[in-house]
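May I ask for a single protein's sequence together with how it folds?
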Amino acid sequence: MNFASARIITDHVDRLVEFYEKITGVSAQRPAPVFAEFVLPSCTLAIAHAQTAQLFGPGSVEAGSNRTVILEFRVDDIEAEFRRLQPWVDDWVLDPTTMPWGNRSMLFRDPDGNLLNFFEPVSKEAKRRFSSRENLGR
């Protein structure tokens, strides 16, 4: 089994698409005005308008209500990414910090309040752990 995608439901598709284009450096594919996809090597990040939630059943999805999921992006140089993102990120949660499990992480919120973690494995153990994943989506 392969993890294929994550989808953010929003009332502001264009605003989120613009934000994610800036932070990922990837242009969104827009098969419909209410839907966009960022096809990354490791998986796809989709953004869909709240109108599309009806397709999944009444009450199944509520735009802007998530405070339990963190979207994580592995990067090559966390300090460079921190500097690069300064003009576009308004809500920093954590400046670059080395975590107990060996990743150097920075956390911030997208314009809808979803939490993002950009991280770089820095300890010997973290680098070893991720080395087996090198060919999986990078």
